[in-house]
Write a structure and sequence with these properties.
This protein has helices at residues 14-27, 34-48, 55-71, 81-87, 89-104, 111-126. By secondary structure, it is an all-alpha fold. The chain has a single domain, classed as Fic-like fold.
Length: 128
């Protein structure tokens, strides 16, 4: 399976990749800021691409879930972050691609995803 230019891991590698994803979230729960956790979750779940359908929806939901749980509240707003991400796909795909390219070079760098999310989180909060 290919997703644009991205070739997700072989399905035999998905269980291990998901275990590592969850462990990384757990290990960095109090190290990373809430937006970093959300950005990592959005990028990494899209990178792993564990489902045949619904990967983007699931990644957006995980992103928002991590943000809300880490901040300790459901964030207010007329439109929530997953909806705002869906409506702003260009920046979404560019940020994911940047993180993918960094990963291909051996670096864990999802700062572009966090930078992409920041104004959307602000938009949600300002709409409350």
């Amino acid at each position: 399976m290919y997703v644009g230019d991205h070739k997700p891991p072989h399905f035999n590698e998905v269980p291990d990749a998901m275990d590592r994803f969850i462990a990384n979230v757990q290990e960095n729960w109090y190290v990373w800021e809430p937006t970093e956790l959300a950005a990592y979750g959005l990028w990494r779940l899209n990178w792993i691409h564990p489902f045949v359908e619904g990967n983007g929806r699931t990644a957006r939901a995980v992103c928002y879930y991590l943000l809300c749980v880490r901040t300790g509240t459901l964030l207010p707003g007329k439109k929530i972050l997953p909806e705002l991400i869906r409506e702003n796909r260009d920046g979404y795909e560019k940020a994911l691609k940047f993180a993918d390219e960094a990963w291909d070079e051996g670096d864990l760098d999802f700062t572009a995803v966090e930078e992409y999310l920041a104004p959307l989180v602000n938009e949600q909060l300002e709409s409350a």
